[in-house]
Batch of 2 targets.
Target 1
Amino acid sequence: MAQLKLEKLNKTYDKQTEVIPSLDLLVNKGEFVVIVGPSGCGKSTLLRMIAGLEDITNGNMYINGIYSNDDTPSERGIGMVFQSYALYPHMSVYENIAFAMRLAKLPAKEIDRRVNEAARTLQLEPLLQRRPKDMSGGQRQRVAIGRAIAREPKLFLFDEPLSNLDASLRVQMRMEIANLHKRLGSTVIYVTHDQVEAMTLADRIVILNKGRVEQVGTPLELYDHPGNEFVAQFIGSPKMNLLPATLVKSGENTSQVVLDSGKELILPIRTPKSAEGQSVNLGIRPEHILWGEKNRAHYQASVIFVEHMGNETYLYLDNGNASEPWVVRNAERSAIVAGEAVGVDLPAEHCYLFDGTGQAFQRLVTAQASPEALISKKIVN
Amino acid sequence: MTTKILSLNTSLVRPQRNKRSLQQRRARAAWLLVFPALFLLAGVAGWPLLRTIFYSFTDAALDTPEVYNFVGFDNYLSFFDGEAYGVLGDPLWWKSVRNTLWFSSWSVSIELILGMLVALLMNQKFRGQGLLRAAVLVPWAIPTIVTAKMWGWMFHDQYGVVNDLLLRIGIIDGPLAWIASPTLSMWAVVFADVWKTIPFMALMLLAALQTVPADLYEAARVDGATAWQRFTRITLPLIMPAMIVALIFRTMDALRVFDLIYVLTSNSEATVSVSGYARDQMVAYQEMGSGSAASVLVFMMVAGIAASFLYAGSLYNKEKQV
């Protein structure tokens, strides 16, 4: 178990391409931190810098308070699981897991004990004599994890470990990784582009964009209080809708905005006086939009596309921007067809507000309304 | 209308009559395609080999091959008055066998080691990589005779660049007779051969190196493997199959060496190879019989060593699969 501290970490290639400008992060002992961001945001590079596979151009890295910039990967005491698994094809499962310990010249008895323990933990016992090519993706993934845990590392690094698995296996392995963390209590840094993995696995999520940390927080903190539009749209699926509006009245406890449709809304959001009169973006998640009566609704639009998921329905609304229509998530089946005109209501307690630069105004709602309340509202509508 | 239906029916009922099965047709096409190659091989390899084996049991002379008597195994080995005759009884044959094995083992091992180093270097990312890979092929592309003449000139005891260089650096006090000296001439041949065939070895190994995924090396680094351990535990086992193929090719070539030695050292006894020996019997002494016998022995030696390589390779694969 280890604590990891990154101080003004910088990665620059060839003295010109800056991938990570300056990054600070503290990962506590036993914490499961997920680094998530769109492809090309520098998350894999960051992980490889922590691993020691990539040089740190500038800044400092401490493991348990010890300066570790110049340590080799094995000196840092990390275990890493690669996206491609990176199993040694010419070795059996047993030898794959034992490799690091053999290099470290551990006694054969100890190696055998640790390999068997890792195999038991990951249900690999019947596979120990197999070679990687004779195994399924999920089994290979387990071997890769086994290789990492058998060394008893201070720090676990996962680089998109589930992206090569099919959907059902991904869910299963996600649970296994969560359980493993619970049982071993180790410090984990996990990189993914999949916000669902981030939400389900993380103690804390680090959202990375263009090499910068956008926000760090628990999954629900990021969902409820995103610091800016990027985070708001990155967390949650389908992503948050942004509606242009104007802030007409600021306030400590409530703010008043006018939508394009001319409808007014009073939101439990704190805005400064200086922002009054500015154009802002009102954010609302697809799952929070309610159907309203056509004439009195906050917004009226025609449905351009309907996706039936079976358990729920996604309806896409025409907002004049064909590439980014607004999405409504209906928690049940919907009889609405494409082309139909609908009215939607935006419940004030579920609204987010962002200024012209994309920064969030502070929401004053702490707890989400209970699901029952939502359902009863829908029935009324 | 009715006839149409009828004819349709018959074709449905017995399609086998007019048509071979797909598998049969494929096999036929395969034989058809392979036939020209088989024919050519039988003509240029099979027939001459049979003729050579045939003549090795006769006392024919090169200028009159149609006049011959069967002499059994006399060309290979025979005894008169307690003296051994025939190819196997000739001390020069055994000298040429020793020369050939010495040459082959030294040149192939040096090529393997240097070729590996060159391949490892070329496997790194750097600017002008493509150009270097093309440039490296030049020695391989030069005809052997030209190589031999070139090195012959470089090894010249008075005007050669090798002696000049060594003298200037101060490694030697006086010029060495690279080509004439019995001890040095074999090394001169090995040098020239190594220079010529490193590109082949390096490119074969480079192709194999490029099949090793980069993340295996990263995983090994995380596991704490040093550069040398990464090479011996990851690289070598993974490129072993390609390396064995390269070794077989090179060994076959080296065992049959003739032109390089013949041109570089003018067929002195110190460097004569088995192919050179066979050529001498056949052309210099005009003895078709013993020349053929020597050729058959060369063939058997090369084939035997190739077979043992392949056998070792299959053992290695079998062990890998267990």
Note: Confidence is low (pLDDT under 50) at residues 1-6 of chain B.
Target 2
Amino acid sequence: MFVIVVGCSRVGARLALQLVSEGHEVAVVDQKQESFRRLGAGFAGKTVLGTGLDLDILKRAGAERADALATVTNGDNINIVVAQVARKHFGIPRVVARMYDPERAAAYREMGMEIMCPTLIGSQLIKEKILGGGA
Amino acid sequence: MFVIVVGGGKVGFYLTKTLIEAGHEVLLLEKDAMKARGLEDNFGDVAVQGDGTELATLQNVGASRADVVAAVTGHDEDNIVVCQMAKKLGCKRVIGRVNNPKNEDAFLMLDIKTTVNSTQLIYHLVEEQVGLQGIIPLLELRGGKAEIVELEISAGSPAVGKPVKELNLPEDCLLVSVMREEEIIFPRGETVLSGGDTVIALTARGKAHLLRDALIGSGEV
């Protein structure tokens, strides 16, 4: 599978490295060159410097033939805009956006977008740990 | 009209001021607490601290009954989300400010049809000054895919004295009207242009210079 990861955040870098180690083709997009350091030396995937909002940058990353795109920058709004562009303009079949704000996440889920909300997932897991799970 | 302005920077500030002066009901949302306090000093209750990209915030300030929501922050992704959330709440008219001209496609793609792109606008004006003398851009349509322009026909123009149908006008151009002193003429094939006429035309992107060549002549510039 060919996956584009927008945002070389901690999550983005880890996701990219994992996908590569499992044999997938990966392109990582980030605005800052220094973010790519998180990928370590000898990263087997491609890195593209620029903002995911820019269609040319997405195209350079290979958006026209990507099987999936994950947008995990630190900005909810950038993520959701990139995700929508990836789906509408490039027709990428699987697109996932990270959004910290649960309400905004819910609004876009209603609009048919695939959203991963770490706030909800994290608080749920922590609650289960505190309450001893199950309950 | 009830207008919600999102983003209290320079554009938002003067837009709010102008709207209030014109007698409209305005609400200005600014995310940053410090900036919001400064705006309150100027506008009182009109300025509210809050993140306009949040559905709940927009709902609380009455976006569903707003006639217009104008998203004019300095961040394109925020402006897009504001417009989408406002539309979701039922606001009929949303306007998005485009900061980076390259992002305008994203606005249009995501169904935000009314955009204001000052960078692009000024760029075009600069370019017109340099390359397209004789043409005054009046209005951009559909994100610049087409524009309405004004041209002045001089007495020595090759178009003078000929009916419109013989003018060999470029494709993707349409003469909308001819102003001759106080008269407004809706041109047909038989209409004959005179020196001193002002022509209003609709042209596709990048075709205005061909229209100029046909109506004013290329050598005159």
Note: The beta strands of chain A are 2-6, 25-30, 46-49, 68-71, 94-98, 115-116.
